[in-house]
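Structure tokens please, single chain.
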Amino acid sequence: MKTYRVGIVGIGAVGTEMVRVLRQREFPAGEIRVLARSERDEEIAGERFHVREARPEAFDGLDFAFFAGTEGAKGASQVFGWEAVRRGAVVIDNGDDYRMDPRVALVIPEINPEALARHQGFIANPNCSTIIALMALGPLHRAARMRRLVAATFQSVSGTGRDAIVELEQQVHDYVAGKPLAHKVYPHQIAFNVLPHIGSPKNDMPGYTSEEIKLRNETRKILGDPEIRVCATCVRVPVFGGHSEALNVEFERPLSPAQAREILARSPGVRVVDDLPNAVYPMPIEIAGGDETWVGRIRRDESAENGLVLWVSGDNIRKGAALNAVQIAEALIGG
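Here you go.
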């Protein structure tokens, strides 16, 4: 079996999960080369690695270079991404620096694998909330064409990174102990609270954040339909892992809840979990650590023509980041 030399840039939550996913899925990696800001030895996902300093020559000989920065983190792919391509690697970037670049394929393998045929050596992972939404919406769009999407996301603190997880844990402990709740990662306390503020304000769209605009722009690019109207409100919630989303969708053609369930039940990477009378529906506590996107609460929207409402949950670190990146590499090697 042919093996591939794989580089991972960054060993935070996503980089660690990439190592774990590569091993779990038995990706034919003859080498996993971990790159970071400084050289050192680290235990990552139960393995011992000698971490190299990220510099241009560190990418020599790699077949794939995964840039594993936390969503919104700037720097690594801007500095080294195209350099890695020039040195022969296919870059798969989890960051948001190049997603809308016309040179860069933006790919969810179950939804738009055809985009890989046009890649120029640099492929981007979509935003985690976009991936989780489109795992459900992509198959329905193919069946009935989505015209309008109104989305409210409920995003866990793991999407911000390890410091946010620690901050939520500490706030919970301090609350129980009757201590003041300090915050540094977020502008307000996150424990027992929700923050309708993910990303930075967008000057060109007053009142919206960068996270909300990503969902609009990335949805249009992935589905190849610039006419889809998208309005999103992105909310940070006191959940450690897993993003959930309420999706209100208007289609061009009629699509009943039963038809939607049938389509989604046969869609790769999707699980229909929809039994409201028995309190069965997707929840982040159930999907954490899993690879499938769960879809439930599928019902008709009587306020819109050809409208449906769905509730989805997915693991933002796995399918929303690490798993999607590895699946892209698998698709490229024919795995």
